[in-house]
Amino acid sequence: MRAILALEDGTWFEGRGLGRQGRSYGEVVFNTGMTGYQEILTDPSYSGQIVCLTYPMVGNYGVNTDDFESRRVQVEGFIVREADVNPSNWRSTTTLDAFLKQRDIVGIEGIDTRRLTRTIRSRGVMMGSISTDEEPDQIVARIRQSPSYAGVDFVRKVTTEQPYEWPYDGAPKHRVALLDCGVKFNIMRSLANLGCQTTVYPCTASPEEVMESAPDGIMLSPGPGDPDTLGYIVETVRALAGKAPTMGVCLGNQLLGYAFGSRCFKLKFGHRGSNHPVRDMNTGRVYITSQNHGYALDPAHLTGGMEVAHINLNDGTVEGLRHRDLPIFSIQYHPEASPGPTDSMYFFKQFVAMMDAA
Amino acid sequence: MPRDPSIKRVLVIGSGPIIIGQAAEFDYAGTQACRSLREEGVEVILINSNPATIMTDLEMADRVYIEPLNVEFAARIIERERPDGLLATLGGQTGLNLATQLADAGVLERFNVRLLGTPLASIQMAEDREEFRSLMRRIGEPVPESWIVEDTDALAESGTHGVWPLIVRPAYTLGGTGGGIAHNMEQLMEIGSRGLKLSMRGQVMIERCLLGWKEIEYEVMRDANDTCITVCNMENFDPMGVHTGDSIVVAPSQTLSDKEYQMLRTASLNIIRSLGIEGGCNVQLALSPDSFDYFVIEVNPRVSRSSALASKATGYPIARVAAKIAVGLYLDEIQNAVTQKTLACFEPTLDYCVVKIPRWPFDKFTLADRRITTQMKATGEVMAIDRSFEPALMKAIRSLEIGAYGLSGKHVNALSDVQLEERISVATDERLFAIAEAFRRGMMVEEVQALSAIDPWFLHRVRNLVAMETRLRVHGRAIAALADTLDPTAAEVAILREAKRMGFADKQIGECIGLAESLVRDLRRAFGIVATFKMVDTCAAEFEAATPYYYSCYDEETETIA
């Protein structure tokens, strides 16, 4: 089945349909990780985006029942050069194509993904669409009449509707309240491994609701989209910050930045992959990190005792904050990994240590 | 930390004569290191007994000594040149051994020469089997269980740990006679008792058998600030039981999910940290094909044959960076020479597939035993890059210069089915061709897997290539007829395009469809099926690259430097 991927600027690619037939629409981004496609597909931070993997052979180890980062596939569309039809791994239960069909995702394979990546690198991320039933000019015309990525509140689409407790056996050492803006399961798993029980709240929860059960710590989750649209959550974060030891991850880092006077700007093509070097300003050590963000904090207007604690070695952007006096810190990348290096798991320990000390 | 200003003059030890497992790759590494040191303003003194190398060219080092690589000559050179430091981790095992001997003989101390890079104690820790095993136990990294037994009681005891199967190796017997694999207590007692009698010392080693497990390697780097990165991982086509130097190797790994990839990456970083290596290091691991179980097999505390491969596969100059770490620089102070925009402190990401095939000398030693096992026999290797596994494999086969243009080998066509199965179950230089022939005869992937223990992922890919041969034959006449119609909408054009994308040579396509090589070339060119060229840039196109190299593939866009 012929499929076309077209971009806002008129560039188009012809390939074969992957997953369901039909149309998908979103911001086209690339991820340079060589493994972890199942985690990427199910990561809520990709809501509203069509993801292209730069690694050319995808689906080699199939899809399994464990490596979900949320209950559903979150990407709008998926782009690969070659989708494997004979996966091999002891945990695999199905192929990438069958999985995408089952989850109603429209994708494309067989295109020159490096050409697409280079296009995005030089012109920046753009809106795009995959279609199995239109010609390129029709698709481009349709894209130009559709809403853009900025200005849409994707967090509202991915947050939990009701508060829930992440399963935990036995008596926990600490209770953590997590504000869900699009959380990945591995954050709760990582906390549980360190003896913490997590209660997950919708992004619309009031500070009072979150604090009602007197949690030992507050976790601000990752999530999708333009943080400029999230003023209501910034208010919540401002009220919560410092009420208990607080850790922010990815969007959580940006929300804390907004709460302490800063703003975000959009990166040309974002940071998405498993190989981004980050310097810890305190120790000078460099860590290889898992990243997925399209916006970065402007460090210039940080106030109220918040300071930059981590920077990206490639482009010098802010990768983490720390409060000078209060037990508050945040990182722009993914200590929960999944996919990507697990080098930054120590942040969860740091969070637990803060709760121990409180 | 900026480079150590007290290091003004460095003695670099080359790897000496070319032997199996230690060939031109060490010249490549040593040359890179000499250039790298001179970039830092260090005066380089080189000693190598092999003048047929690039590193001994006069412009590579400030002074070159072509002398025997032994303590006597090295000591004399040290006495005369009075270097501040010695760099020995780039000259293979030869360089490492000489450095150890110089230290033991007190030469380094007497002339106040510092061993640069990885400390001697770390090297000894990595190379001493028992010390290494106990270090691995201390840091919680699994090593395969093994017991040395000298009587039948201890033999029986070794079978009580619930670890099966076990390899029984009698100590000091000629050619390892009397050994075997035991799957239960009865077999263990039978093989073990026989081994105890056969061994000249009455000693038998019992070890967990990892035959058939996946063999995975990681190339890792560490600086003096304890920052660690992995340059690349690799997966062996041939499972455990074949020396990695004799195995077809693919980079990056293909059958590992992110969980497995990261689990082994973390283990490799734990190991390089615990050893305190400053520079590069190669970690070999065995991974179970049906669980998360793994074992650490071996560590090379130096630039190795595999690191040369990883270097070329990723574009990350391991030897160059290792030399800079040796003079005190941190990874985040060294520039990525390929992008010139980012730093050496990152992990390369690939957007292509690399296949290495060993080159064996059996065409010259026609009577030699062609079986490949745990002792390396290859005298060279070829490496090919393409967008996916099949074309990279095909390019590598052609690069071997053994007269093969693809997976058809004349020698395997004539074999009976029984002989063919034997060629699949016993690893030899011809196994890949035997597997392809088996698929041609209709054998299933599961059957070939049962015989060879090769992961089905690789087998399916080999079968894809055989299926394309068949498609070309079936549609041969129609494809050849395209020359007359030149109809770009004909379905056969897509077959031709796909065959090129899968790495089929024009000559091979011609053989399948009954057309001369040059006519196949004219035909595909008429349909615009031509090679494109893409960069090896260490970063999957995320950043612009300044000094990349290129590989060919049949894709949409050719890249050139602006």
**What is the subunit organization of this protein?**
heterodimer
Strand arrangement across the biggest beta sheet of chain B? 14-13-10-11-12-15-16
Backbone CA Rg of chain A: 20 Å
* Poorly predicted segments of chain B: none
Strand order of the largest sheet of chain A: 10-12-11-13-14-19-18-17-15-16
Short description:
The complex is a heterodimer of chains A (358) and B (562). Chain A is of the alpha/beta class.
Overview of the molecule:
With 358 residues, chain A is of the alpha/beta class. Chain A contains 10 helices and 19 strands. Chain A has helices spanning 37-41, 96-102, 113-123, 136-144, 155-158, 185-193, 207-211, 231-240, 251-259, 346-357; strands spanning 2-7, 12-19, 23-31, 49-53, 57-58, 77-80, 82-83, 106-109, 126-131, 164-165, 174-180, 196-202, 217-220, 246-249, 264-280, 286-297, 306-312, 318-323, 328-331. In chain A, the strands form 3 sheets. Chain A has a 10-stranded mixed beta sheet with strand order 10-12-11-13-14-19-18-17-15-16, sandwiched between helices. In chain A, strands 1-2-8-6-4-3-9 form a 7-stranded mixed beta barrel. A two-stranded parallel sheet of chain A has the order 5-7. In chain A, β13 (217-220), α8 (231-240) and β14 form a beta-alpha-beta unit. The longest helix of chain A is centred in the C-terminal third of the chain and has 12 residues, at 346-357. The radius of gyration of chain A is 20 Å and the shape is globular. The mean pLDDT of chain A is 97. Chain B is of the alpha+beta class and 562 residues long. The longest helix of chain B has 19 residues, at 456-474. In chain B, β10 and β11 form a beta hairpin. Chain B is globular. At the A-B interface, α3, β15 and β16 of A face α9 and α17 of B.
